[in-house]
Amino acid sequence: MKKYSLFLFSILGIVLLFGCSKKSTKQDRLKEVVVYTYDSFTSEWGCGNAIKDGFEQKTGIKVTYVDCGDGVQVLSKAILEKKNVKADIILGLDNNIAQKAIDADILVPYKPENADTIISDDIRLQLCDDWYLTPFDFSHFALIYDTKSNVPCPTSLQDLTNPVYQKKIILMDPRTSTPGLGFVAWTVAIFGDKTLDYWKELKPNILTMAPGWSSGYGLFKKGEAPLVISYTTSPASHVEYDHTDRYIAPVFEQGHSIQVEGAGILKKAPNPEGAKAYLDYLISQEAQSLLPLTQWMNPVNPNVELPESYKKAAPVPSKTVSASPEQIDQAVTQIMNILEN
Q: Rounded distance, CA 62 to CA 60, Å?
């Protein structure tokens, strides 16, 4: 009988210990915000760590970043974990994939404090209705050109099909990369039903389709090719830190597509209140002031003054073009068939 009683007490102790452990783990999780994002955001030179430090000092809540690759991969991971949500925030979705996230039903709406201050008069930065995503930065896409190369500077997208650029252009895979998808959107907006003809002409001039922006731009900086898809704001980084105006973003009269990046709270997030606090901080003037010299994108908070390097080397296109998500999706499949066959 004594042995039986001891056995029962042992079992009860294990159950109580397990229950307390689960409760403790849940309480600890409320002191942490987990953010799914892309590689350049979390890199040592990116803005992620500076934002993390500021947020942690302000709130006492720990931030943990999970590098998912590039923007499209961030979305894919969140959708795969839809029934077992591990993160609180998804950061890096843009205007070309925002609707996919909404259709996948992985987000909950939240309008951050002072959100009304970030909506510009000339560019609609709000990514979707009901604030499923909060915009935090933006820039136009552009081809970055190395002025010390032996090829001429392009003046239009059509110029890129010229044989002089054979194997001279670095792009990103639109199936994994938001800049890659943005370039497809740009071509669809300009060429419409002639888009596939354009890509057939462009194919011989593509050196590689990198999986993401970091790897593609890294190849460009190593001198592998004189042209790479990036942003009109990218040359400012070379002026600021490399002290050179060697790299430029030519502005095309036909117009440029734009990227607006956003962040949202995942449905069934373990720490929704912490996630709300993170979004509040993300668009604050304090956090937004960190973006220009780390993220190399325009902050959405209009109270942030841009550095001199932007004024010298970050041109603003006079015309913004766009394509529908449906047009872009259809084009991606057809374009990849052209490039892979």
A: 6
Are the C-beta atoms of residues 37 and 66 closer than 8 Å to each other?
Answer: yes
Q: Across-strand partners of 91?
A: 263
> What amino acid is encoded at 113 in this protein?
E
For the stretch 188-217, pLDDT in tens is 999 999 999 999 999 999 999 999 999 999
Q: At what angle do helices 195-202 and 178-191 cross, to 10 degrees?
A: 120
Query: Six-digit token pair at 294?
Result: 């780390």
For the entire predicted model, the pTM comes to 0.90
73 and 41 Cβ atoms separated by less than 8 Å: no
Element spanning 230, H or E: strand 227-231
How does pLDDT run across 53-102, given as a tens digit for each residue?
A: 999 999 999 999 999 988 899 999 999 999 999 999 999 999 999 999 99
Q: Is 151 helix (H, G, I), strand (E, B) or coil?
A: coil
178: tokens are 């938001």
H/E run at residue 7: helix 2-29
d(CA 97, CA 182): 10
The whole-angstrom separation of Cα 12 and Cα 288 is 52
Q: Which of 247, 266, 261, 268 is nearest to 315 (CA)?
A: 247
Q: Is 244 helix (H, G, I), strand (E, B) or coil?
A: coil
Six-digit token string for 15: 């159950």
> Terminal CA-to-CA distance of the chain, rounded, Å?
77
For residue 254, what are its two tokens?
A: 């036909």
Q: Are 167 and 158 a contacting pair, CB within 8 Å?
A: no
